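Possible regression after last week's pipeline update?

I re-ran a chain I had predicted before the update to compare outputs. Posting the input and the new output here so someone can diff against the archived version. Not blocking, just want to make sure nothing changed silently.
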Amino acid sequence: MDKAIKAERYFKNSLHFLECSIPRSSALAVPTLLTMRFFAATFATLAVLAAPILAAPSGLLPVETFPGATSGQYIVRFKEGVSPKTWVKKLGLAKAVSFENINGLAS
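New output (post-update):
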């Protein structure tokens, strides 16, 4: 017999054996489906819980300091909606200069 024919018969017999050995009931599919649903639900829950943690602000900005003597004069920039004039009155600053373009003051 030719080697090609033997190989073809062997392949067909092996394939037939594999087809017959797979169970046809849906009982095997139920745990797999439940496992897939469990992992999908777990992944979705972790994604929803991790998003705010990863998107959280980094906290306060560090204060830059420099060695040496300071002049005692500062430029302060306020957030949007905060009035520099209110802070000048609160702190009782006599020589404060207001900068409207940066929403800040110098003292």
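Follow-up from reviewer: compared with the archived run. The chain has three helices and three strands. Marking as no regression found.
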